[in-house]
Design a protein that fits this description.
By secondary structure, this protein is an all-alpha fold. The protein has helices spanning 2-12, 14-45, 50-58, 63-70, 90-93, 98-101. The radius of gyration is 31 Å and the shape is elongated. It starts with a helix and ends in a 5-residue tail after the last helix. 0% of the residues are buried. Residues 79-106 are annotated as: Disordered. Belongs to the COX16 family. Keywords: Membrane, Mitochondrion, Mitochondrion inner membrane, Transmembrane, Transmembrane helix.
Amino acid sequence: MFAHAVMRALRKNKTLRYGVPMLLLIVGGSFGLREFSQIRYDAVKIKIDPELEKKLKMNKVSLESEYEKIKDSTFEDWKNIRGPRPWEDPDLLQGQNPEIRNTKTT
């Protein structure tokens, strides 16, 4: 009888019913976030293979070099080509005239 009365009192107590799970969530989330944020700092410490690092440095592409490539390009003759929708075949869509393109293919 006594255990039954205690359990009923604990179920009715709003602090134990809502407050304790909330505190457990906050404290547990804090520890969880600490572990997940530590992964970011551990990943920085990992050393890359020197051969791969050389390849990455040789293939360095900068914003300025890409700008120099397209600086003299003219964009007056470009076409706006719509990509295929999920129900359309991408191979058939490219190169079709606009009237056929407007019909739904299944």
